[in-house]
Amino acid sequence: MEAKMSGKKYLTEIDRPSNVDKEVRFGSDVAAQMLRRLGIDYIALNPGASYRGLHDSMVNHLGNHQPEMLMCLHEEHAVAIAQGYAKAGGEPMAVALHSNVGLMHGTMAIFNAWCDRQPMLIMGATGPVDSALRRPWIDWLHTAQDQGALIRNFIKYDDQPGSADAIPESMMRAWQQAATAPKGPTYVCLDAAIQEDELEGEFEFPDVDRFQPAPAVGPSRESLSQLTALVQDANNPVFLIGKCNFDGQDWVNRISLVEQTNGKMLTDLKTHSVV
After folding, report:
1. Measured between alpha carbons, how far is 126 from 76 in angstroms, rounded to an integer?
2. CB within 10 Å: which end of the chain, N or C, has fewer?
3. Which domains does the chain have, with CATH numbers?
4. Where on the phi/psi map is residue 52: left (φ > 0), alpha (ψ -120 to 50), or beta?
5. What is the pLDDT of residues 200-239, one digit of tens each?
């Protein structure tokens, strides 16, 4: 039986803890709260110890709701789900990838999303950055000095906040960049130690409205006038139009444009923007 909350369908109530600690106590609680405050409904992940703090907070602090976890068997699956979710519904979601090894597993899917211009917020983790806190062998293998360098050439933004206080702005900027055209994946890497550090006093969250996606940039009046003249003077105009956006009225307007100019239109559902 599906549970329905806020007009959206979620998994069964069996997947929700009965005792949720609503107090923001740890650095990972801050990151989890930011996922919710950004309006993210789902996060696809393949569990890993580097972000065990965030995983714990999403379960025991958020109650596996807003966002709800989608468990995957491979990092490429998680990223591909986020790509398809954005492509089909027009809304980005989040992904969690375990340390350097999980990020390397997900690189091909991240590159696919980059080429497809699909937005997503990728949460990663490393460390502890403080070598004195690392467990022998395993933590050393899963720690990188500059983990974002693995994917920096095909993402829009990456950051590794150095404190719990720095997490909100880092995530807001990543979300803003992901959702601003041309859209694409962004990456925030959390220090394992910061996730598990207990906060001192009540944590104050910033207003997420400060970091809304930038409005779409349109052509100048001169460019539109030149384009209009070219179309009007054309003997056999052909419009190559992709998926563009998810507004039905916009699609009706495109059809009207082609009909009024006595032109022809070729479309491609795979292409998200006008060709």
Report:
1. 19
2. N
3. 12-211 (3.40.50.970), 221-268 (no CATH)
4. alpha
5. 989 999 999 999 998 878 889 999 999 999 999 999 999 8
